[in-house]
Amino acid sequence: MTTETKKPGKGRKFLIVLTLLVVLIAFGGVVGMQQFIAGKKAEFAKNMPEKVNNVTVMTVKSREWTPNLTAVGSIRPNQGAMIAAQTAGTVSKVHVKSGDRVTKGQLLVEVDSVAERAALKATEAQLPNAQANYSRMRTLVASNSASKAELDSAQSTYNQLLAKIEATKAEIARRQIYAPFSGKAGIVNVNEGQFITPGTEIVRVEDQSSMKIRFTLPQTDLERIFIGQKVTASIDALPAQTFPARIVAIDPAVDRATGLINLEAVVEEGASKLLSGMFARLNIALPTLTHQVVVPQIAVAYAMYGETVYVLQPLSDEDKAMVEKMGQEVNKIFRVKQVEVVTNERSGIYAHLSKGLNDGDIIVTGGMQRLSNGALVKISDEAPVGVTAPAKPTKL
């Protein structure tokens, strides 16, 4: 018995071909419609008038610029020290209170020294006898009634007693804590009857007659600083205030590990408001430069590939005809050119430029967000943006 393979009939073949034709026609219609729409869009864009962006501008005028170096530092007093115990013992008397004004040599704290004073009296009691014996031996040696060895022994005994007395007096003095200089006492950390050990912190004393600022700068700035140079300090703890100062000392050596050099400035005004240890931000003024290009920082676009400013360029005759056709005022319409600049320094709302702009250039200060090189712009009647610092908000 043989098996026969069935072949599709003519009707089935016709149906498949018809389906393929319908799909091809539909696909072609979609592609054609998209091309038609794209062509219409291109035609519309070609005939659409060029967009004009409103901007604020300013004219570049050369001016003076005072460059400065910035640094951070800390406040320190004219003199300051934490007074600590030199020996162990019990505090017998506290003569100072927290916050007192003290004078140099004033007794602040006494540590019990009864045993040392008793030892001093005992030693001093032996001194007259030793002195008399020494004098007698000198007389006897002079008359050849005693040997030189006996005289040396008497003299040694006498000298030992003198040395022991001085040592005992020094030990008693170490148990009396005096102010090393005049100033203000801080918080007293000990109480009467408290046992203290060597190194126990007793009280801080600071001479605040003048306040200084210790700070550092890179050694590369060494040639630009000098004794007497003006410094302006701002303190985070005292906002909206500045403190004039001047450099009074430059360390003669550079730190090998950091490459920094230590400097010290003395505060000339407002020192009474400062406390040692306060954090300070410093601006060191350098010689003023003349005929410099200074623009608002907002006019400079900062990007990874560089810094640019939009400069206004006059319209060509063709552009003027187009602008008149658009119904715009020709004298207020310009094209912008993106110019590369280099910022030397920034201070407040201004940037000091060294390349790209010239005196008399008109630059865009506001409305740059949608600009591109060669765009049409219209000068707004509003005040230039970023030329002056914003006013402080009034309290409601």
List the helices and strands and how they pair.
Blueprint lengths: L9 H38 L4 E8 L3 E3 L2 E17 L4 E6 L6 E2 L4 E5 L2 H29 L5 H27 L1 E3 L4 E3 L9 E2 L4 E18 L11 E6 L2 E17 L5 E8 L11 E7 L3 E8 L4 E3 L2 E8 L3 H10 L6 E15 L2 E6 L6 E5 L9 E4 L17
Parallel strand pairs: 1-21
Antiparallel strand pairs: 1-20, 2-15, 3-10, 3-14, 4-6, 4-9, 5-8, 6-7, 8-10, 10-13, 11-12, 11-14, 12-13, 15-19, 16-17, 17-18, 18-19, 18-21
Q: Notable features of this structure?
A:
single chain, 26% helix, 396 residues, nine-stranded mixed sheet, 21 strands, alpha+beta, six-stranded antiparallel beta barrel, disordered N terminus, disordered C terminus, elongated
Q: What's the gyration radius in Å?
A: 45 Å
Shape: elongated
Number of helical regions: 4
Distance between the termini: 108 Å
Q: What string, H for helix and E for strand, traces the elements in order?
A: HEEEEEEHHEEEEEEEEEEEHEEEE
Number of extended strands: 21
Class from secondary-structure proportions: alpha+beta
The biggest sheet amounts to: 9 strands, mixed
Provide the low-confidence segments as ranges.
1-5, 389-396
Estimate the strand proportion: 35-45%
Q: Mean pLDDT across all residues, rounded?
A: 85
Question: Can you give the helix content as a percent range?
Answer: 25-40%
